[in-house]
Amino acid sequence: MTFTLFIIGVLIQYLASYHVFSKPILDKFVNYTFIHRNFLFLGFPFFYIGYFIKNSKSLVKLSLPVLISISILGLGLLLGESWYNYNNPQENGGFDNYLSLILICPALFLLFINPKLARLSNNGNLALISSSIYFIHPFWFIVLNEVTTFNKFVMTLFCFALSLISSYLLIALYKVKVQNKQIFKFIL
User: Fold this and answer.
1) Which of 188, 17, 183 is nearest to 98 (CA)?
2) Whole-angstrom Cα distance, residue 78 to residue 102?
3) What CA–CA distance (Å, rounded) separates 112 from 109?
4) What is the per-residue pLDDT across 22-81, written as a single tens digit (0 to 9) for each?
5) Which of 38, 87, 129, 154 has the fewest beta carbons under 10 Å from its own?
6) Residues 6 or more apart whose Cβ sits within 8 Å of residue 80
């Protein structure tokens, strides 16, 4: 059911972005973002995969080389799918639901919770960086969209770079705040 729902969402995204329907009302309907980018077609599949990973002992025990290989394969598929959609003249909308996400997202999750890799990032910075990038990138996208005329690729690079820089600044401010609280408690 999970994969079926996800594939339906991806299919709707492709039908919308490539304007497959000849009837304008149907084409307009599938081009509403909330039709394909919603809990049923995007959220639920990934929530369920996370639940499945949590309850599956065998997936968590996959070796680091296997997880790296699957992640590289997933990244290659994602880049290939992105390149195809970016360079296809028939596509005139942005993409949110890539078919390759169903492989790369769980693979990356399993990779980063792998005990051998987790030991390398046990200070929690990886979680803080990923969270701050996730929450700050819409801000930079809106700002860059208002003040520049970059193409999608350049916009993505600038948005990522500014989000990464912002995340480091936010984390530094957070650590200063936490440190000041501890100093204040020590003084009292």
Assistant:
1) 17
2) 10
3) 5
4) 899 999 999 898 999 899 999 999 999 999 998 988 888 888 899 999 999 999 999 999
5) 87
6) 100
Task: Please tell me the distance from the alpha carbon of residue 42 to that of residue 7, in angstroms, as a whole number.
Answer: 9
Q: How many DSSP H helices and E strands does the chain contain?
A: 10, 0
Q: H/E element holding 51?
A: helix 44-55
Q: Are 114 and 95 in contact (CB under 8 A)?
A: no
Q: What is the reported pLDDT for 77?
A: 96
- For tokens 């497959």, what's the residue? 20
Please give the pLDDT value at position 118: 64
> What's the whole-model pTM score?
0.71
| 128, HSE (Cβ side, Cα atoms, 13 Å) | 16
CB 74 within 8 A of CB 104: yes
State the Cα angle at 74 between 69 and 76, rounded to 5°. Answer: 95
Structure tokens at 79: 């880049």
Greatest distance between any 2 Cα atoms in the chain: 72
Contact between 104 and 71 under an 8 Å Cβ cutoff? The reply is: yes
In the chain, the amino acid numbered 80 is G
